Amino acid sequence: MVETPRNLTGVTLGDFKIDRLLGRGGMGEVYLARQVSLNREVAFKVLRPDLLANETYLTRFEFEAWAAAKLNDPNIVHIYSLGSIDGIRFIAMEYVQGTNLKDYLQKKSTPELNLALSIMRQAGSAIKAAGEMGLVHRDIKPENLLLTKKGLVKVADFGLCRDQDSEKPHVTQPGVTMGTPLYMSPEQAQGHVLDHRSDLYSLGVTFYHLLTGRPPFHAESPLALALKHIQDVPVDLSVHRPDLHPDLCRLVMKLMEKDPADRYQSAADMLRDLAKIRETILTANAGASPLGVAVTTPAISIADVSGLSKTMAKGAALGEGSSRNRSGLAAMLMAVGLLIGGGVGWSLRPADLLAAHSRASVAPPALWMAPAWRDVPKQANVETQYRYAQVQAEVGTRQAAWLAVTGYYPQSKEWASRAYTQLARLLFRDRDSSKLKSFAAELDRIDRPHEKRLAEIVNAGVGVLGGDPEGVINRFSPDFFGSLADPAFAEFSLEIALEAERAARLNPAAATNSILNKLKQIQFRLIQKTVEIMSFDTLGRPPQP
Predict the structure, then answer these.
(1) Do residues 152 and 66 both lie within one domain?
(2) What is the Cα–Cα distance from 99 to 504, expressed in whole angstroms?
(3) CA–CA dist 472, 266 (Å, integer)
(4) Tag placement on the chain: N or C end, fewer CB within 10 Å?
(5) Which positions are annotated as active-site residues?
(6) What is the rounded distance in angstroms from the CA atom of residue 149 to the CA atom of residue 142?
(7) What is the tens place of the pLDDT at every residue in 52-103?
(8) Interior angle at CA 259, CA 255 and CA 262, nearest 5
(9) Where are the alpha helices (DSSP H) in 71-112?
């Protein structure tokens, strides 16, 4: 067996070329690497050589990859592969350029409320996805909440994860305590059997830290900390933050109840309450001036997100980006809260956005793309079908899963429109120009404003992939911004605009200052529109027709 070098920088292992060391942990090292065949950066996690013969650590290492790969959620770090080359056991996973919540809090202290609510919502969504798959993370803490350059929260490190439904022996058994004492649930500290409510407790402790700048308990030893979680009642959040809405304080304190039966019984229940609280806060802020939130919220949100941008630009995360990446960083970050699994803010849309011309009867488009949509399990209702595509579908079946929403429920126009948007984004990321072009043509034939607007955006993406980044400038005109009311559209458009800038910079003949400046202006206007939409977003409501 080849002994693992102390540092693998410069080594090529199969399809992976190691670039540099990102960090070390108790079980091994994490490197930045490039997957040569797909030309993409990955985080390359390597198990320490002295642990290869230890069945417990080897199983835990493999289970981390299995558990995360079982989940298909935008708020969870994606796993690409698990393997062994020359005696080196590795996991290749999504490389997250950004910072973690612990580092952010250390450098910036507590964030502005809108950003905090966004982080809470996204972290809760990840725990919801894991819980619905029967997984208990067991190590939820600020270090394991990564903040990407787009403002997306990514839950990482499933090394201590436990599958409630598996019949296989677990890596740790009841009576064995593992985790981080600062954020550990009482039942976890006592080595009891855990379920998803343990993660909710740890999430509550993390939220408490997020909102106050400090964990609820401090002690001189891990044992003393564990005892505090078991015996002591934390100081009420409202004592530290009397400025917070009372319902928000109650939500966090409920998550930290000692008895699991007194907590929220699911992350979905917590997210519903969080959505109502956020709506109440936004409504109150909107009434503060004749111009509503449009006067106050954007300036605050942009300032706070700019602070996050500065934190990451200093290299406090998983590595510095190129000057090109940094130039687009502020634009992506200002869309914090935008990525929420399918587009929030649908209730904001004009009443006729989807209902206009609803008399037209048109067959669902694009079903030809993935005839295997009929093999996707049909769910009890259209919303569950959408969530299946969003959370449970395997990576290779996602096109079919999104099309199954429209295939099984063609009359549910609002959910079909959401699925079309997700399908279009998937095709764009896969750089499938041919399918995108055909999809745009089919969408344009549907006599509904929402689909026609999506067709415009898709055609802009087709142009970028076809080598015409300047076409984005013509398509994203003032008229386009004037009627933009869907946050998912704003996000997709920003993604296209950023790719247009990247493509322009790769072509010296096209990278004129005029074109680059116009693309920057489009990105900024998309950010402004996003903030405006999110200011009036009423999370938690079902989409309105």
Answers:
(1) no
(2) 28
(3) 43
(4) N
(5) 139
(6) 17
(7) 877 777 777 776 676 666 777 788 888 888 888 888 999 888 888 888 999 9
(8) 55
(9) 101-108
Could you tell me the residue range of the domain that residue 208 belongs to?
98-163+178-286
Which pairing describes strands 135-136 and 153-155: parallel, antiparallel, or unpaired?
unpaired
Quote the CA–CA distance of 151 and 469 in Å, as a whole number. 25
278 and 155 fall within a common domain: yes
Please report where in the chains the tokens 């929402």 appear, as a residue: 450
Q: How many domains would you assign to the chain?
A: 3
R_g of the chain computed on alpha carbons: 24
Of the candidates 124, 383, 162, the residue with the CA atom closest to the CA atom of residue 266 = 124
Answer left, alpha or beta for residue 254, where phi above 0 means left and psi between -120 and 50 means alpha.
Answer: alpha
Is residue 113 located within the same domain as residue 240? Answer: yes
What is the DSSP secondary structure assignment for residue 76, as one 8-state letter?
B
Task: Report yes or no: 97 and 148 within 8 Å, Cβ to Cβ.
Answer: yes
Question: Can you state the percent helix, strand and coil of the chain, rounding each to 5?
Answer: 55, 10, 35
Mark whether 197 and 88 lie in a shared domain. Answer: no
Place of tokens 């609803």: 358
Query: Do 183 and 206 form a contact (C-beta atoms < 8 A)?
Result: yes
What average pLDDT does the chain have?
A: 76
CATH code of the domain in which 134 resides: 1.10.510.10
State the pTM of this model: 0.52
Q: How far is CA 351 from CA 306, 404, 489, in A?
A: 34, 26, 17
Amino acid identity at 458: V
